[in-house]
Amino acid sequence: MLSMKKQFIKKGVTGFIFGLLAIIALIMIFNKPIKNKVVATYQPKVTRQAVVAASKKETANKKHRQRFKTASYNFKKVKPLDFGTVVSSRIHSRQIAPAGQILVPQSGIHLPIGLGVSNTTLALAAGTMRPDQQMGRGNYPLAGHHMTDPKILFGPLYFKTRIGQSVYLTDMKSVYQYQVYQRVFIAADRVDVINQTKQPIVTLITCDATGKGRLMIRGRLVKTTPLKRTDSKIKRAFLRPVNS
């Protein structure tokens, strides 16, 4: 009787192990599709109130660093976008401090912009690369993950964005329209490209196909319009949830 009980327990443990291995195998097989789906389900509606609240909190952070956690601009802490990071970021997505939205209609990019380059922010949004940057003034650099899926995060930037296209940014008050004038591959250590400039430009940065270099796309500011008066198609896009 005792022997039969041991055999039953042994079979149960063996079955559990095989089941667990099967689940792990399925996750590994469908890792990328599941990861992309999790990213795509992040569809917050960015509002002016949320942007202003995040900006005020960031200002308070600078004055009271010992009391509040500020947005991270430490590029060295950015990790590759693996399955675990995506799931964790989706669970903690409320930590993302909204700064606005980016829209590149011809490339199919419509993403929230979050303050900083924390792993949570970059897993689900484009991230600002300096704490002092302002849309429409000087250089406004944004970082985003390159994805093999040409529809996720800054994947379209690599696969579809070309010179001459329009890039739209909004802080949910005004719309800043830029025209792409440069598409170039640069070394990963070219941090100078995020420096402030006199000319109002947008700088979009993502990894190249190897992950060792970077793709940089720049656009010049051509027009600033109040959101309520901007082109109807652009306005409708910005008033919808992102990733839609």
TrEMBL record:
The keyword Membrane applies. Gene3D superfamilies: Sortase. The active site is at residues 145, 207. It holds the Pfam family Sortase. The chain crosses the membrane at residues 12-30. Keywords: Hydrolase, Membrane, Protease, Thiol protease, Transmembrane, Transmembrane helix. It comes from the Bacteria. This is Sortase. It comes from Lentilactobacillus farraginis DSM 18382 = JCM 14108. The lineage of its organism: Bacteria, Bacillati, Bacillota, Bacilli, Lactobacillales.
